[in-house]
Amino acid sequence: MTDAGSFLDKEYPYGFVTPVDADAAPRGLNEDIIRFISKKKDEPEFMLRWRLKAFAGWKKMKEPAWASLKYPPIDYQDIIYYSAPRSKKDGPKSLEDVDREILETYKKLGIPLEEQKRLAGVAVDAVFDSVSVATTFKEKLKEYGVIFCPFSEAVRAHPELIEKYLGSVVPVTDNYFAALNSAVFSDGSFCYIPKGVRCPMELSTYFRINAAEIGQFERTLIVADDDACVSYLEGCTAPIRDKNQLHAAVVELVAHDRASIKYSTVQNWYAGDREGRGGIYNFVTKRGLCRGQRSRISWTQVETGSAITWKYPGCILKGDDSVGEFYSVAVVNNHQQADTGTRMIHLGKGTKSTIISKGISARFGKATYRGLVKMLPNAVNARNYTQCDSLLIGDRCGANTFPYIEVENRSSRVEHEATTSRIDEDQLFYCRQRGMSADNAVSMIVNGFCKEVFKNLPMEFAVEASRLLGVTLEGSVG
Amino acid sequence: MLEINDLHVSIDGKEILKGIDLTVNAGEVHAIMGPNGSGKSTLTRVLAGHPSCRVTGGSVTYEGKDLLAMSIEDRARAGVFLAFQYPIDIPGVNNTYFLRSALNEVRRSRGLEELDAVDFLTVLREKMKIVEMNESFLARPVNEGFSGGEKKRNEILQMAVLEPKLAVLDETDSGLDIDALRVVAGGVNRMRSPERAILLVTHYQRLLDYITPDRVHVLMEGKVVLSGEKELALHLEEKGYAWVKEP
Amino acid sequence: MNDTPELQPYVDAYEKLSPQRLKEPDWFRVMRDEAMRSFLDKGFPKRGDEAWRYTDLSAVTGARFIVEPMTSRFVSGGVRFLKPSLKANFLFFINGQFQPHISGIPAGVRVIPLPEAGNDEGFRRAITRLFTDEMDSLQSLNFGLGMDGVFIDVPDGAAPDCPFYVIHWSDAHGALCQPKILLAAGTDARVALVEDFRGAEGKMYFSNTFTGATLAKGAAVQYYKIQSESRASCHTAAMKALQEEGSDLLSVSLAIGGKIARHTLSVKFGGAGAAARVLGLSLGADRQVLDHVTGIDHASPGCKSDQLFKSILAGAARGVFTGKVLVRRGAQKTDAHQSSKNLLLSETAKADARPQLEILADDVKCAHGAAVGQLEEDPVFYLRSRGIGEKEARRILAAGFANEVTDAIPLESLRELAGVRTDEKLGEMEAEA
Fold first, then answer.
1. CATH class of the structural domain B2-242
2. Is residue C228 part of a domain?
3. Phi/psi of residue C280, each to 5°?
4. Residue A451 at interface with chain C, using a CB cutoff of 8 Å
5. Which of A149, B192, B212, C411 has a CA between 20 and 30 Å from the CA of residue A323?
6. Measured between alpha carbons, how far is A20 from A333 in angstroms, rounded to an integer?
7. Bridge partners (DSSP) listed for residue C259
């Protein structure tokens, strides 16, 4: 096993800090801070009112305690809620305006923002701390009528769409972290695919937390109109710091008649060191509304980072014959904890959902699957299939499986299966007998275990996910 | 090449091997025969370093080195190959990928350049002919959904690709029909060379109709009780293992 | 302390019982005080309590029950008609009160009524082990206010030749029946215990019972419960088993009666190599809520647990299953399996399942499965193609679904009895399908 220093270098190559001059709000949270953020964003009045309403709701709420997570209390007054790299103008109009240091940062992260260097098929919105710093391929997308822009820009340029859809899937007081996000969110991505358009390229947002002691609160809203189709990717990293940082995002998806949204996440926030110091607290609310008939929303997530993960990307299957999918890999090593799963709420007739969850726990890691499948009385002939498997590596880690199945009509069918076991000694022996190191053998077996999930990721992401898995589990068997 | 001296091995606290002595030289094929429960499989597993085998006495020297002190993968990289009696499934891991990773690890340890996907496929296709395997198997997960015969052929294919110096085959003939047996035996025979030693573990004589051994050893109750030329196998076939025990 | 007015009657009742409590030994009184304090602290389960997510007890918490012993409309000998025709040692309870004069006690086994058990060392050992702070408030209520019950002490190596068969009869409107049945099975002892809950139809009473079993090394206990309470009543029962090395438990619970009924089964493996096979069947009709809760605590290595819970639901009934398997650190070589299968016969029936795995050791084999649906159409078609009417076909298939649970009962006479009760209920449910 390598020593702690080089181990960390190897483990988390994205732990560097970019030296940028930042424009930040004072520490703490109150109505003035919210006004400050709203003003910085030059928001219309309705947005400020909406934020204040969320804040009022949040103050009355309690942080949820039901998850199988242990962490010291978060001091919400000790967080900086807004930090943006200082730029000459309001926001960068083109790449030339973007700080060179920031461009360098994204290059180091493997996400060059210059369009000619990008893989032609992917448009990127780069969110750095509290603001979007660049969005590529905007012009090309415009030709198709696709709107893909920073959230703050959308609020100004398309207020009618924002007012219509913002909070329509995740209401302001849905839960503690969503309410907090609604009050203070600073940026994120907005995406609208008009009727009948298949988005010509993958859309992606790359989130980067850079500044110390800030919380990142971004908001993503994707609307696919009738017969539209889009695939969206999300990636995240942050520097190595020994204090925990809060990330509380909200993602809302709306799929109209026959529309399809595929949302993929590779979450690789800084996870803390081997002793559990530092790392991101990742409290995220993601929900999709299959509003129209035969619409489809598919979530694929690979959660390898963060000290704490709390997220349950779900689908409200309202439209008849709509489809919801959730494919998840959650890996916890060292002292990471993840409480994650999904909610599939079947309202419409003939709705279908599939849940495939793979949890991997190593060293002191603790992974919990928590999922709700609910068939309401009108969800005639609805179907759900769930498969949850947990793999344990080492005798100090833990795995929980907590499904909730609620069926209120007889024509629905729900099937849930789950297993928990350790990594198979004989598989390890077989691989090592063929010459592979223990680390590579573990990585290969675990990758095989996750295959069903990875195959749902776009190619580039699948390769990245599989590599991350190997890196995360390095040194987990002796 | 391989020298086993007074080897004692326990599994779950029970002594299975009770003092094995065996010397195998490069270029030789040795057959180890014996009834069920005599410790044949344990012998193959202890050579490969299976964690369940606890060595309680004796030594194993392989090419002048202490084999028992080496990790599982170091033994493999040094050229020890075990064809398993019951090869395990590895769901989700594709055969080609598995074999290329293994080969490259072995090559790296020998200071050879790694093979890229294209070069590897050329090598693999060549070797596949030996075991008469269908291309479709390449994309399938390792051993998953394979028939017994396919699993055994796959073991031989892996052996052909990894080119070990010491190949240990644990009951590779069991559960094979006559055609598969011919293919597997053909694969083994092609591996015979002056630099390579092969240890065949088998319950029945019939494999030895296809592969002629230089030496035959009879293992009973954890000990080699009889060694001889290939004719010994025929005697056994005729008279059964009880014959060995007779005074 | 919780000062909700709804709890005041229980405080008063506790006061009223003080002359009786004073006759009990000090350690028992301390235990009761502690239990009562815990109950008053927690109060009744409330809406929003995660453990009671699907089962609403407000009908109970809002009602006033009479804690004092209530008489039956039967002279006590009259309840003997409830005896099923099978060979057993019958023990009778009426409205929660033990009836020693009509109960049969075999030789070689000690059966001690609770009021007299206080000075018995075996009883003290068993009850103090079973009384833990993991109890929920209803179990605390039983320990605080439940004065009656029996202690069955089966010595080392003993194997009574027929089961203990406890008949609980309740017919007093407003009664709070809180018996305790404690069973101590000595080393290598083999014993079967049956609890059969019956009630006068239409009577609204509250059975809140506790059954505890300690299984010494190598002991084998079979526990059967048939719950056919009055359909106006509320039934909450806790069964707790503490298993030592190499012991073996088989537990089968049939939930048939009650308006709201919950059976909570907890098993703790305190020694290596123990095994528990736990089954349950809920047959819900009308607006019944039938709830099974299990908690299997793998606190020792090399233990095996296997759970199968089924429900068949008609009318607007609700079936609930919550099952937890906890594998503690160090409990290597654990083998745990749980399965929840639910059949909905009507449009308005509901099923909720929460199988849970909480695993802190790695060398384990744990799995769970849950399924909810209606009868498969293919088998229905098959039976009809052989000339069986559709209704009958569905009844046969539903009975077959139920049989998987009742077939696990090795005692033939009892298996038949369970079959009869199951068929009766399925007959009623057919009308609501």
1. alpha beta
2. yes
3. -150, 150
4. no
5. A149
6. 32
7. none
